[in-house]
Design a protein that fits this description.
The chain contains no helices and 10 strands. The protein is an all-beta fold. The chain is globular and about 40 Å long. The N and C termini lie far apart (about 40 Å).
């Protein structure tokens, strides 16, 4: 059974930074495109960033230039470095296989507030 454990969230002031981690119990992790998603209060879950097997990346327009996704295939771990955080980034952040519709972890809460 695939599991994702997200961590690194917290309370941060506008303009601050956080680095999220996602430990994946996923065999052949390196063969999957992986994504970071978020669900803000009252909104649907949305894709924030993804990283492909060739380490190419793609970002939502709202985070491009501020967020950086990376992966460590040896550790089956996904990362999201978030800089220049704004109130609009407040959400629960999840990782999953890119395009997957189920198997979500509990996520990690990111709250941006002064």
């Amino acid at each position: 059974q695939v599991q994702f454990v997200e961590s690194g969230g917290g309370l941060v002031k506008p303009g601050g930074s956080l680095r999220l981690s996602c430990a994946a119990s996923l065999s052949s992790f390196s063969t999957y495109a992986m994504g970071w998603y978020r669900r803000a209060p009252g909104k649907q879950r949305e894709l924030v960033a993804c990283i492909f097997t060739d380490f190419g990346t793609m970002y939502a327009h709202s985070v491009e230039g501020r967020f950086t996704v990376s992966r460590d295939n040896a550790q089956s771990t996904l990362y999201l470095l978030m800089n220049g955080l704004t109130n609009e980034d407040t959400a629960v952040y999840y990782c999953n296989i890119y395009g997957q519709v189920g198997g979500w972890g509990q996520g990690t809460q990111v709250t941006v507030s002064s």
